[in-house]
Amino acid sequence: MRFLWPGAVPALGRCLQSLPNLQTLEIGSPNYYPCTSQLKKALKGVRLPQIKSLILPPSAYTLLKRCPNVEDVDWVIGDQAVTSSEFLRSLASIPDSKIKRLAIPLISPGKPSGG
Known about the structure:
The protein is of the alpha/beta class. It has a single domain, classed as Ribonuclease Inhibitor (Leucine-rich repeat, LRR (right-handed beta-alpha superhelix)), CATH 3.80.10. The protein has helices at residues 12-17, 36-42, 62-66, 85-92; strands at 24-26, 53-56, 72-75, 101-103. The protein has a four-stranded parallel β-sheet with strand order 1-2-3-4, with no helix packed on it. The chain is globular.
């Protein structure tokens, strides 16, 4: 599942809760990052125990706490530098984490700096 426009974010929580068989959720793409504050608001009070696999940019880190049974996490960063501290803190704070696979690039694939 992929939302490519910001107007979809407010309905996201209701939509996801209405899909009990959904096991894999992809938010964003390498070139689009959802607004973190909009996502937090849309997911307030939402719990998604059916989700086993997440593919998301760091700005969608709030989903980690909403998916207590997630086992597979792929971090999509695209070609832009991204601040990862909130994502990593959120990941580390999952109680009784069931994560079995974690794909996090440690180096941004952007253009190398130098002169």
